[in-house]
Prior knowledge:
This protein is an alpha/beta fold. 34% of the residues lie in helices and 16% in strands. The protein contains eight helices and ten strands. Strands 1-10-9-6-2-3-5 form a seven-stranded parallel sheet, with helices on one face. A three-stranded antiparallel sheet has the order 4-8-7, with no helix packed on it. The protein is globular, with a radius of gyration of 17 Å. The structure holds 2-amino-2-deoxy-6-O-phosphono-alpha-D-glucopyranose.
Amino acid sequence: MPISLIVCTPEQAAVVAAELVVGTVARILPHRTPEVGAATGNTPIPTYREMIAAATRQGVDLSRVRTWNLDEYRGLSPGHPLSYRTYMATHLHDRVGTPPEFRCFPDLDDPAAYDLRIARDTTASGIDIGLLGIGRTGHIGFAEPGCDEDGGTFLSELHQTTRQDAVREFGSLDLVPTHAVSMGVGTIRKYWSRVILMAFGLGKADPVWGMLQGPIGNHCPASLLRRHRDVTVLLDPPAASKLTMKLLQATQC
Ligand code: GLP
């Protein structure tokens, strides 16, 4: 299985993930535009902070990175405080000065156009490295259980558990969007050269088990990443707590 597993604290994971992203960006920048996949949620927030710190220390200009967001809610205006555009502006784009054309999001009216745009704009390289979280349903982006195992960017109906989890941001269930446009598992497998997936807390222990040790299939979209060529998984001990020792022996700390 081409998955490297690291168990550490969330703080250490943010530093490791940030070093991986900034290191990749630094290697590519002298030659071409680095292409970075971007996730939202609480999990990657410290990583964006550490990326900015690492880039500042190393003199790497993150404003020259083109970012490709995984997903966006449907039905929110781009400037809505809970849109993923706003999230990215707050945690990365406005802080490093990313130009508008390097803030890439799926077209809410034409999902399939996103994969074509990735293919066109990233030429042969695809997305060099990208961050992922995992939802309690085992979703990645908003590719929920039952999604097409090899599908491209699509309109996704959000799972009830996912909507319930979003109540903490939206305040009540009826304010949580019912749909989002998300990269599909096929988008990630086809266009992302390297995946960094992070999960923290006991609430992620079941989907993490499903991703790494359960059967591979679209009942747990993250499990389909076991068919990707280069995945690094960063977990804290509670998120790793349901994995068997055999798998954990591969762990570095
Ligand atoms: C949302 C996002 C996912 C993210 C997930 C988990 O569903 N679309 O990309 O991985 O939330 O969020 P959190 O990191 O807050 O647990």
